Amino acid sequence: MSYFKSSISLGSIQGGGDMTVPGNRMPGEIHVIVGPMFAGKTTALLRRIRSEGDNGRNVAMIKSSKDVRYAIDSVVSHDGAKFPCWALPDLSSFRDKFGGDAYARLDVIGIDEAQFFEDLYDFCCKAAEQDGKTVIIAGLDGDYMRRSFGSVLDIIPLADSVTKLTARCEFCGKRAFFTLRKTEEIQTELIGGADVYMPVCRQHYVNGQLIMQSARAVLLNCRVKREVKSDDSCLEEAAVI
Ligand SMILES: Nc1ncnc2c1ncn2[C@@H]1O[C@H](COP(=O)(O)OP(=O)(O)O)[C@@H](O)[C@H]1O
Ligand SMILES: Cc1cn([C@H]2C[C@H](O)[C@@H](COP(=O)(O)O)O2)c(=O)[nH]c1=O
């Protein structure tokens, strides 16, 4: 049998050593808020960020620059509640844009639409564990097909707390866990609100998906037929010339 010889003394792990993060800050925290669209994720994030600010902590809010539905430089809930934010294509650019000194003084970072940030995991690790920040993240856990969306689920193992919110099913009023897409588009990322999506319970997700998938198949078939037809007419035209 072999033993792994560690050079780290147990004292430093059990509390005898300096347990602060580099730069002598206490380690931060990571809190995650997930759920379908219209569940109140942004509302909950705004409430938590405002309350941190009211308690005298320095706060900053970030959202994805992909989603500028209601405003360019504010996080806005579906009810219209607002908070100024940095709209960024990625999280790694935040520190430079915010400024090194201002970043050092920052206590709490809110991130909305977290599903759109590819570098979510690395940013949260560094912000909480090296820089001592409290990071509060709101995002979709699943897309309209109920597939894991972006890196939101990857940060669950890093989190201090995870809150899964629910909306109300638009068909029956029961708790809604899922987001149904009402249009024919099939790409994962499609910015939109109530014009494109609705919150639904399990039963109405299953029924709704069946209907939407048949509708998408019919539309695709029509499009293919139309394209073949226009190709034919092009060929006919070419033959005439
Ligand atoms: N089907 C719906 N269409 C439009 N607005 C809705 C719908 N269901 C709920 N809402 C409103 O949206 C609010 C939640 O907004 P928000 O916090 O932005 O949610 P999320 O960030 O989870 O999408 C609810 O309090 C409610 O007033
Ligand atoms: C389900 C689903 C959603 N999106 C987009 C639509 C919205 O722009 C955001 C979610 O906003 P909310 O604050 O949670 O209401 O994400 C998408 O691109 N793809 C999807 O499958």
UniProtKB/TrEMBL annotation:
A Pfam family that the UniProt record links to this protein: TK
Keywords: ATP-binding, DNA synthesis, Kinase, Metal-binding, Nucleotide-binding, Transferase, Zinc
Enzyme class: transferase
Protein's UniProt name: Thymidine kinase
Metabolic or biological pathway: Pyrimidine metabolism; Purine metabolism
Record-linked PROSITE patterns: TK_CELLULAR_TYPE
InterPro entries to which the protein is assigned, alphabetical: P-loop_NTPase, Thymidine_kinase, Thymidine_kinase_CS
Organism annotation: Nepenthes gracilis (Slender pitcher plant)
Gene Ontology annotations of biological process type: DNA biosynthetic process; response to stress; thymidine metabolic process
KW Signal (keyword) present: no
Catalytic activity, as annotated: thymidine + ATP = dTMP + ADP + H(+)
GO molecular function: ATP binding; identical protein binding; metal ion binding; thymidine kinase activity
EC number(s) given by UniProt: 2.7.1.21
Family: Belongs to the thymidine kinase family.
Lineage: superkingdom: Eukaryota
